[in-house]
Structure formats: C-alpha cells, structure tokens
C-alpha cells in the first residue's frame, strides 16, 4: 500500500519534460529580471576588482638587517644575490635583478631597502572565509559531542543528570545567541583571561570564546534532536539487546545509537547549517570572520553590491557543500 496515495503515481516522459522546461524558463526569466534591475541602478559595477580581495600580488621591499658594506653582488639570470658584510656578521639577500637599488661598495644601514619583489598575499575575503571555516568546524565538533552527551543525560533515570540537562537546554534555548556571545566574551572571557594573566599564562584568543559560545548554543538544540532520535527507536530494540546480555551502554552504542543517528542526520544537518550562518555574529566580538571582513572591504572600497553578493555566494557554497556531505552520509548509512 502506498504511503503517499496520488503523489507517487507514475509520471509520463512528457509530464517531466514540460515541468522541467517550466523550471528552466522561470530560472532564465528570473536571471533576466535581475540583470535588467542591475542595469537600471545608477551604480558602477567593478567585478574585476573582486579577485584582488582573495589573492593579490604585493611589492615587498627587501630590507637590510645589519649595518655594513655591500661586499658582493652576483647576478644569475633574473635573480641577484647581494652580500652585506658588517662587523663580525654577513648577510646575503636574493631579489629580482631589475629591482636592485644597491651597488658594490655602498654602505648600508639596517632597515635600508636593497630592492623589492612581488609576493602573493592572502586577501581579506579568503582570510575571512578561512576563519569562518575554522570556527564552524570546531564548533560543529564540540556541539555534536555536547549534544550527544546532553541528549543521553536528558533521558537518564538519574535525576541529577536529567535535571542538569534540562536546565542547560532551557537556559541556552531561552536567550539569543548574540546575548550569549556578549556574556562569553565580555564577562566570562574577561574573568578567565584575568585569572590566566595573574598566573602568568597567555590569554585565550577571542576566536575560541566565539567557538565555545556557538558550540554551547547549538549543543542545546542538538541534544533535543538526539533525544528525539533515541526515543523514536522502538523500546523493544533495547529490550532485545539487554536480553542478549548486553549492558545498557553497550546496547546504546551498538543497537540504539546507529539507528537514531541515521534518523536524525537531516535535522542535524539543518542545525549545523544554521551554525555556519550564525558564525557571522562573531564579528561583534572582533573576530574577523567572513561577514566582518566583508564590512571592512566595503567600507574601504565602496563596492557594497559586488562584495555582499560574493559574501552571500561564499556562505551558499559552505552550506550547500555541507548539505551534500550529509546527504552522502545518509546514503551510506542506509
């Protein structure tokens, strides 16, 4: 018997072709409408400048590190080796021949330029994307651990464990993430770093307070997802496992959890995709993630349209890629 009567009826080839055509026509019309809208705006589009915010070449000066005479200059093709001899020390520098600024016999002071060379540098958008990836990755791992542990505590018969889990879940879910970020950074973070400084230990970087805040916030929702997944498995599964001589924890690990994880993967994917997007709030505590560096670049370049569109596209790539990964895990789990 069909679970979805009327919805899973066989479709003809013509039916699929027509509706596929309608989709692509609507997509083309939407893109054409967007193009017309952009042309009607009094704005100078400068897409050619966007790649420079990912990687760019910078002219970097090669500076002498010591005081002394230019003792020897050797040219080999396009590269030149400059040897500076000081009192009891010698330094050799390699730089492009065409950028050479010194000659043999010149007296050089520390900090004087000898030449320059072009080096590839990481742009702000690529740096912000890396910080977003790093924060999201660690926060997802921590949130998953917190969620599984708290979810198991939530269904425990131990009153202390159960009520501790309920208290944590309700407290975290009952306040906005932005407020929790502020508390973690300005209150808890300040106290912890003050104690560490008094003990002569280096401070914890701001990024880690942001990661911890994201993980604790998402872990509360993950705990409820895990609890619902475990309770969706029939009670008879646990009873059968225990009747075979398995302990409670062994039955949970080998029988219940594999089934529960397979069922909760879509919900977990949605929660972790929200975490990736919520990482954009880390900018309020001075973490230079993707959204914050985009604001900085927009302020300096006055290119809001191009840069915010690129920022949105990068978040889409991250979330869509994560969604594909979870779908692959679902397929393998089945």
From TrEMBL:
Entry-linked InterPro entries: AA_ABC_transptr_permease_3TM, ArtM/GltK/GlnP/TcyL/YhdX-like, MetI-like, MetI-like_sf
- According to the entry, every stretch annotated as the ABC transmembrane type-1 domain falls at 129-326
Q: What is its main location?
A: membrane
Record membrane topology: Multi-pass membrane protein
What does UniProt give as GO cellular component?
ATP-binding cassette (ABC) transporter complex
Keyword Transmembrane appears in the UniProt entry: yes
Per its record, what are the GO molecular function terms?
A: transmembrane transporter activity
Q: Give UniProt keywords alphabetically.
A: Amino-acid transport, Cell membrane, Membrane, Transmembrane, Transmembrane helix, Transport
Mind telling me which residue stretches traverse the membrane in this protein?
18-37, 124-153, 173-192, 204-223, 307-326
Q: Which domain of life is it from?
A: Bacteria
- Pfam families membership: BPD_transp_1 (PF00528)
Gene Ontology biological process terms from the UniProt entry: amino acid transport
Look up keyword Thylakoid and say if it applies: no
Q: Which Gene3D superfamilies match?
A: 2.40.50.100, MetI-like
The subcellular localization recorded is: Cell inner membrane; Cell membrane
* PANTHER family reported in the protein's UniProt record: GLUTAMINE TRANSPORT SYSTEM PERMEASE PROTEIN GLNP, MEMBRANE COMPONENT OF AMINO ACID ABC TRANSPORTER
Sum up the protein's function in the record's words.
Part of the binding-protein-dependent transport system for glutamine; probably responsible for the translocation of the substrate across the membrane.
Protein family membership: Belongs to the binding-protein-dependent transport system permease family. HisMQ subfamily.
User: What protein is this chain from?
Assistant: Putative glutamine transport system permease protein GlnP
Which source organism does the UniProt entry give? Desulfoluna spongiiphila
């Amino acid at each position: 018997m069909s679970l979805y009567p009327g919805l899973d009826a066989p479709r003809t080839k013509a039916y699929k072709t027509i509706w596929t055509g309608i989709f692509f026509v609507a997509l083309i019309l939407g893109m054409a409408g967007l193009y017309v809208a952009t042309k009607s705006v009094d704005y100078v589009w400068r897409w050619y400048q966007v790649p420079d915010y990912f990687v760019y070449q910078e002219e970097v000066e090669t500076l002498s590190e010591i005081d002394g005479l230019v003792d020897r200059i050797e040219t080999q093709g396009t590269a030149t080796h400059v040897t500076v001899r000081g009192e009891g020390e010698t330094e050799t520098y390699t730089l492009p021949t065409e950028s050479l600024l010194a000659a043999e016999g010149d007296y050089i002071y520390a900090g004087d330029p000898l030449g320059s060379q072009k080096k590839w540098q990481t742009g702000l958008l690529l740096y912000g994307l890396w910080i977003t990836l790093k924060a999201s990755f660690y926060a997802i791992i921590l949130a998953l651990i917190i969620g599984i542990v708290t979810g198991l505590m939530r269904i425990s018969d131990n009153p202390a464990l159960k009520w501790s889990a309920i208290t944590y879940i309700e407290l975290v879910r009952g306040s906005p993430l932005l407020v929790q970020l502020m508390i973690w950074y300005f209150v808890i973070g300040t106290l912890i770093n003050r104690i560490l400084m008094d003990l002569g230990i280096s401070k914890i970087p701001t990024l880690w307070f942001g990661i911890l805040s994201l993980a604790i916030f998402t872990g509360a929702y993950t705990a409820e997802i895990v609890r619902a997944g475990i309770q969706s498995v029939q009670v008879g599964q646990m009873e059968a496992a225990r009747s075979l001589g398995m302990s409670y924890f062994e039955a949970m690990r080998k029988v219940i959890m594999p089934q529960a994880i397979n069922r909760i993967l879509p919900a977990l994917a949605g929660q972790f995709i929200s975490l990736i997007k919520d990482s954009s709030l880390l900018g309020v505590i001075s973490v230079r993630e993707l959204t914050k560096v985009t604001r900085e670049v927009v302020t300096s370049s006055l290119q809001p349209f191009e840069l915010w569109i690129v920022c949105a596209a990068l978040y889409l790539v991250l979330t869509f890629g994560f969604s594909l990964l979870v779908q692959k895990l679902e397929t393998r789990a089945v």
